[in-house]
Amino acid sequence: PGKRRTRLACLTSGGDSAGMNAAVRAVVKMAIARGCEAYVVREGWEGLTLKGRYIIRVGWDDVRGFASIGGTLIGTARCAAFREIEGRRKAALNLVRHGIDALVVCGGDGSLTGADRLRAEWPDHIQALLESGDISQEQYDTYKHLNIVGLVGSIDNDMAGTDMTIGATTALHRICDAVDSISSTASSHSRAFVIEVMGRHCGWLALMAAIATGADYMFIPERPPTAEDWQSSMCKVLSRHRDEGKRKTIVIIAEGAHDCNLNPITPDMVKDVLSNRLGLDTRVTTLGHTQRGGNPVAYDRILATLQGAEAVEAVLASTPNTPSPVIGIQENKITRQPLMDAVAKTQEVAKAIERKDFEGALGLRDPEFEDCLHAFRATTRLNTEYRVPENERMRVGIIHTGAPAGGMNAATRTAVRYCLCHGHTPVAIYNGFVGLLEGNVAELTWLRVDQWGTRGGSELGTNRTLPAEDMEAIARKLAEYKLDSLLIVGGFEAMVAVNQLDQARSHYKALNIPLVHLPATISNNVPITEWSIGSDTSINVLVDACDAIKQSASASRNRVFVVETQGAGCGYIAMLGALASGANIVYTPEGGINLKQLVTDVEFLKKRYQQDVAGKSEGRLVIRSEKASKTYSTEVLSNILAEEGKDLFDARLVSLGHTLQGGVPSPRDRTRAVRLTVKCIDWLEEQNRSGASGAASIAIQGAGIRFVPVGEMMGAADMKHRRGKVQWWQSMQKLVDVLS
């Protein structure tokens, strides 16, 4: 009361990336919810330097439907004028004339550098504008300071200090879709394909695509081939793959690839080597701008929404003396850091590459980058350099437990190949603990698992049977197959299985081996860890379905769809799906459903439809987790909405059921599975080397990864509802409510 509302403007600049619209939507809605006036700047920095209606005030419904659309609806343009001080002064004048107090800028390092420069020069600009008479003394006194917050929109994922940039995950999806399609025709004709992806100074897309698609070789700027004769090194690796029986060869190359002397390596050069030296029928595919296009995947929508909301909070917390922040993410935690520190570190990568300091360039990337590079080498090279001493080699059992989840096969493929690389013997246990009792056990080879990474479900087979049903027989079988350690891939049941085996060790000697649990479940209900393999794939299936459903609902103008999701006693899928799809209401088992809440939600929907412009109503979504309430089922909920909506809206229900467990695993689930599996095998090696027999789960917590003793895992579990006692994502309920 009595204070002028903060005017906050959002602009997108530089190259477009999927998720920018979700960021704009989040900034606008959160700004309005926090009592600010929201504006957008059309055509990026160019819009700030031109006269006309480029700085536009927007309302709540002006960003309706933004989250699911690719590119940037408010436009972007690289602006030569803004690089000059006169252009930035024009931008300052336009901002003052529109009364803008703060800017949220979504773009790459160049765009964010320009933003920070504008803020640094701001006192000089408004002083000059006052002296020239372009602004009044009152305007000068009111707009002495400009707050700026950065969001990183870049498909290259090249910003230092953040694990992921807005748009990178969608670009990776586009690449993997293309490579998966190419792989089938390459195998049919026994061909080689050289596939060029974007990444002038950053090889993240090439590296992650190579891991996710099971490519044979790759070239990235940060780690060029160490030998000057890279052609012979490549041919040696690929020849061994062919000798093993592979019918296809896939090489992925970043557009900025070069040799150790900084000489460019082009797709055509690689093609000529494969054709002339190995006699392979080789084709080149350049994916180009298809990597930028299309609707954003679920993760980019969620990331952009969380970071957009955080950007508004950062604006409101900023003072004239605080550095401009950029919003990032580390593992699973939204972060703020000084914008120019991040930009300086980012630009240092290119400088390090120019100095041929490739170790330094690699060290400036996030931890996932180096982990994945190590994993790729270890799972594609057929040599002995990584083998451990013979007395440290193990027979490693690999078993799936619980329901299937996307990424289980990628984890198994990685475990098999990493074990073979280190000299261990990977032993597959088919059909869970039932299969172990029945003797469905076999050693796996390098080639046998070659194409498993891109397959959904569980190639080993899985079920919910636990070892406690016949612990004595389980121990006898582990001894019979001489297993030295066990990797258990699965969800809540897998954690319980590890605990049961651990608790029975005093009775059975064969159980005194290292046991590690890799969380894999679409429900993401394993305690302590904030992420499980398979959950990203499931949310993408849900979001794709919701996009199609919402399209149908909007065509009908006045229809509400109640969408039922899986998740058992955990509402993770429903909550994250609601955030990504722009659902208006979400019901989870944690929050439940009561009559008072239903009445409030019905009145909310009525009010929204009454506020819609005649003939321009949109369809709306309600997402309900399958166990949100025993009384208010999806059918009951749909019937209530249909009855109460009367002439305003009707309601339909959709149950997605087991479709959420199927489909091709998302690249994020594949790459995370690879990275975490390698860490699990390394942990088993450490336990075996030290003579220990620990039992633990690998967990992502905040900005770190750690191995959690199974006793601690069980202590954090809500056994009745089969979920964690504390769940990090529940705070998102407030954000979903605000944005809807």
UniProtKB/TrEMBL annotation:
Gene Ontology MF term list: 6-phosphofructokinase activity; AMP binding; ATP binding; fructose-6-phosphate binding; identical protein binding; metal ion binding; monosaccharide binding
Entries under InterPro entries matching the protein: 6-Pfructokinase_euk, ATP_PFK, Phosphofructokinase_CS, Phosphofructokinase_dom, PKF_sf
Keyword Transit peptide among record annotations: no
Superkingdom per UniProt: Eukaryota
Any GO BP: fructose 6-phosphate metabolic process
Reaction(s) this enzyme catalyzes, per UniProt: beta-D-fructose 6-phosphate + ATP = beta-D-fructose 1,6-bisphosphate + ADP + H(+)
HAMAP family: Phosphofructokinase_I_E
One Gene Ontology term, aspect cellular component: 6-phosphofructokinase complex
Name the UniProt record assigns to this protein: 6-phosphofructokinase
Keyword ATP-binding found: yes
Domain Phosphofructokinase residue range list: 7-315, 395-684
